[in-house]
Amino acid sequence: MTASDFxxxxxxxxxxxxxxxxxxxxxREAARRAGISDARWRQIVAGHQVVxxxxxxxxxxxxxxxxxxHAVGVTPDELRRTGRTEAADMLxxxxxxPASPSVSSDFTSDPHIDAIASLLATLPxxxxxxxxxxxxxxxxxxxxxxxxxxQFRRRAV
Length: 157
Description:
Blueprint: H1 11-23, H2 27-34, H3 38-46, E1 48-51, E2 54-57, H4 62-72, H5 76-80, H6 85-95, H7 111-121, H8 125-141, H9 149-152
Antiparallel strand pairs: 1-2
């Protein structure tokens, strides 16, 4: 390969790399915060990966790029200027305060719920999704306690 075979990383990769430097984080720590591997972080920031000795371009999926940007303090507007509008929209959603519940809940000030939510927030996004998936599975496995009038009537034999 010659020097001309190497292309420049995409604009969003340059932005992430510069923000990483400004944030004074290691790539490893930023990758952890974004929920991706250190190796994948490096590939995305470099704009390429080597597969079987051949350099292949890498373009981060929008959700991954949004998490990377969030980890190093890039704003949605900065990301949007790189042309990655979908990722910028996802980043804006990550940064948005949670919507207040439309229905009052008995659990809004429960310290157990707060502790679990705080712990969940420390996990990478993929781990958070796995925890929530397991909770949904547990809920789905519970018997429903909905009763209709027909459930309590005796059948005539």
